[in-house]
Design goal:
The complex is a heterodimer of chains A (about 110) and B (about 110).
Chain A: E1 3-7, E2 10-14, E3 19-26, E4 30-38, E5 45-51, E6 56-59, E7 62-67, E8 72-77, E9 86-94, E10 100-103, E11 107-112
Parallel strand pairs in A: 2-11
Antiparallel strand pairs in A: 1-3, 3-8, 4-5, 4-9, 6-7, 7-8, 9-10, 9-11
Chain B: E1 4-7, E2 10-13, E3 19-25, E4 31-37, E5 44-51, E6 54-57, E7 64-66, E8 76-78, E9 87-94, E10 103-104, E11 108-112
Parallel strand pairs in B: 2-11
Antiparallel strand pairs in B: 1-3, 3-8, 4-5, 4-9, 5-6, 7-8, 9-10, 9-11
Classes of the chains: A mainly beta (about 110), B mainly beta (about 110).
Chain lengths: ~110, ~110
């Protein structure tokens, strides 16, 4: 069964600090891995997307990494801001042409001043 | 562009009532989908459509109907609401099913009492 597991479930850090969120997956065959940011009461918004051949991708202060061999991904947030408080969802896509998405349960990140 | 618009934002239903959640997009996307988001679980696919006149079931379709008469609109109908359908519902759209750039609506929080 395809699964996406994220850790930690929740995280509290001080404004300005860095943090790293983890995503492990057992999805086959692999197509791509996405990270979404979901603010409270809003829909998910895409941050990054990586295919099998990509190891790292950045979007401003967000940097995602992918190790397709170990089936692990991380999302690193640099110099956190209060607006980074949100849930971060890892999503893995399987199969080309008939794509199925498997969603993680998310990491709830809280930035405190 | 408004993106993906969902209405209503909040709804309370009594068990057995029916209702329609509305979803509209103005990006001329072919692929649209409905998800539900429950505490402690990742988003789960209810129904999807790859174009006007074409719909198919997702992971959790029971108790829901959809139709796609136009490219822009993809309403989700609850036939006879049950407390188990209490959830947050998200509509999403993208150019095609494999498109990594999926856009989500703001969600509808539904409570069935």
């Amino acid at each position: 069964k395809n699964q996406v597991e994220q850790s930690p479930q929740s995280l509290i850090i001080l404004e300005g600090k860095n943090c790293t969120l983890q995503c492990n997956y057992t999805v086959s065959p692999f197509s791509n891995l996405r990270w979404y940011k979901q603010d409270t009461g809003r829909g998910p918004v895409s941050l990054t997307i990586m295919t099998f051949s990509e190891n790292t991708k950045s979007n401003g202060r967000y940097t995602a990494t992918l190790d397709a061999d170990t089936k692990q991904s991380s999302l690193h947030i640099t110099a956190s801001q209060l607006s980074d408080s949100a849930s971060y969802i890892c999503v893995v896509s399987s199969q080309f042409g008939n794509e199925k998405l498997t969603f993680g349960t998310g990491t709830r990140l809280t930035i405190i001043p | 562009n408004a993106g993906v618009t969902q209405t209503p934002k909040f709804q309370v239903l009594k068990t057995g009532q029916s209702m329609t959640l509305q979803c509209a997009q103005d990006m001329n996307h072919e692929y649209m989908s409905w998800y539900r988001q429950d505490p402690g679980m990742g988003l789960r696919l209810i129904h999807y459509s790859v174009g006007a006149g074409i719909t198919d079931q997702g992971e959790v379709p029971n108790g829901y109907n959809v139709s796609r008469s136009t490219t822009e609109d993809f309403p989700l109908r609850l036939l006879s609401a049950a407390p188990s359908q209490t959830s947050v519902y998200f509509c999403a759209s993208s150019h095609n099913r494999g498109d990594t750039e999926a856009f989500f609506g703001q969600g509808t929080r539904l409570t069935v009492v």
